[in-house]
Target: Threonine dehydratase
Amino acid sequence: MTKQELLDCHQRIIPFVHNTAVLTSRSIDKEVNAQVFFKCENFQRAGAYKIRGAANAILQLSEEEKKRGVVTHSSGNFAQALSLAAQSLGVTAHIVMPNTAPEVKKAGVREYGGIIYECKPTVEARQSLADEIGVKTGATFVHPSNDNNVILGQGTAALELLEKQPDLDFIFCPVGGGGLIAGTALAAKYFADTCKVYGAEPYEVDDAYRSLVSDKIERNETTNTIADGLKTMLGDKNFPIIRALVSGIVRVTEDEIIAAMKLVWERMKIIIEPSSSVTVAAVLKQVKEQPEGFQNKKIGVIISGGNVDLSKLPF
Model:
């Protein structure tokens, strides 16, 4: 995927996405002794960055493919994003969701016109049902993260961040299926070649960390995390990008995730979901553990989303 392809993608999706705000917090800067710039995709359409990749993927389909619709599997954010992008383009969206997905995210899918099919909360169950729907309807499968058009779309969040703050030393973002961090790494490579990209992961779903150690795609052995958007695994399209361009993965505990979520809600007065809090927790941890490398630096943080089930707050 080239620099021009990323630029073309950005232009293509402009009518369908928000160029979200980049916010700062003096109190958080003081706490970490660094300048932190938050790219607030919690203000994005459908409440998360994933509308970027979803819109790009649908826009790249032929007219005949659009008529037959699209199908995906997702715990929530990509489900909502693909539903909204499809609705905006007059395309039918079939959405496979685990039966454990947050009700607020199911409600969002329904609001955007997506047709929900529930399954057991395993990667195998998701993919099997999505394949079955594709055969029955002729819908094109759009993977939430392991798709080149999706990766390019997700990379536009970091591209916009670097347009506003081109001198970043680091960008941190969460790692679930790997689409966002792969796109972010491409954006950094092409538009800020001295900027290092770090991923953030819960210890409970640390497959990306282990994949970089073993040099092969690892699976999650548990999914016992509050960060429901990060329970998926890497794919063969995004892992080579991550392996080549990402400097490391920072793992955080569930308590650290909750503390970071509370910190941002209290200090910045914005709603971020647990998957976004993972990234903030990783920055707090990395700066504390390696102050010589991160203090007094300029750090970008991709706040990936703000879709929170308010009936299940962890504090």
Observations:
- The chain has two domains: 3-48+147-312, 51-141.
- The longest strand covers residues 196-202.
